[in-house]
Amino acid sequence: MAKIDAAKIWSLNYRLSMQVITSVAPQIAELGLETKELFVLAEVDEHPHPAELADVLCMPKPTVTFNVKRLEAAGFLRREIDAKDLRRHRLVVTPAGRKVMTEGLAMLSRAFGQRLARLSAAKQAELKAILEELN
Q1: Distances (CA, A) of 106 to 20, 54, 101, 134
Q2: pLDDT of 55-104, one tens digit each?
Q3: 6-134 has which CATH code?
Q4: Helix, strand, or coil here: 74?
Q5: Does the CA dihedral 105-20-26-41 come out positive or negative?
Q6: Where are the domains of the chain?
Q7: In whole angstroms, what is the distance from residue 98 CA to residue 65 CA?
Q8: Residue 4, Ramachandran bin (φ over 0: left; ψ between -120 and 50: alpha; else beta)
Q9: Which of 10, 27, 76, 82 has the fewest CB atoms inside 10 Å of its own CB, making it the most exposed?
Q10: pLDDT digits (tens, 9 = 90+) for 5-33
């Protein structure tokens, strides 16, 4: 059996992800978002502190801060004092932010779904199981 090239698999996965993101970037922009901002919004409920967002999204902290400021200015996020630690702020998605986040994620889902549709149901299930195991 031939040796599997892990870098090639990683590259294929990365290219697929970027193709999907790029295919919907113009529609996401029409919502008033950049794709990175969409990913920030999508994680705020589970990771409401900017440092946590930077870690989970593998983004530099200044990049997250920049995106958070833009999202606040657009009315998609707001900062609140964290009741558990009054020295910290936590981020909260506003109703307008939740609306654009839901729409943007649906766009990504449809674009990725079109790619997945090339696979049989059994292969889709297998891919899902493999990705869950790797994560």
Answers
A1: 12, 23, 8, 24
A2: 999 999 999 999 999 999 999 999 988 777 777 888 999 999 999 999 99
A3: 1.10.10.10
A4: coil
A5: positive
A6: 6-134
A7: 19
A8: beta
A9: 10
A10: 899 999 999 999 999 999 999 999 999 99
Tokens 């449809």 correspond to 110
* Under 8 Å between Cβ of 87 and 45: no
| Distance between CA atoms of residues 78 and 69, nearest Å | 9
Q: Are 39 and 76 in contact (CB under 8 A)?
A: no
What residue type is 50 in one-letter code?
A: P
CB 125 within 8 A of CB 46: no
> Tokens in use for 120?
């049989």
What is the Cα–Cα distance from 63 to 37, expressed in whole angstroms?
10
**Is the Cβ–Cβ distance between 100 and 31 less than 8 Å?**
yes
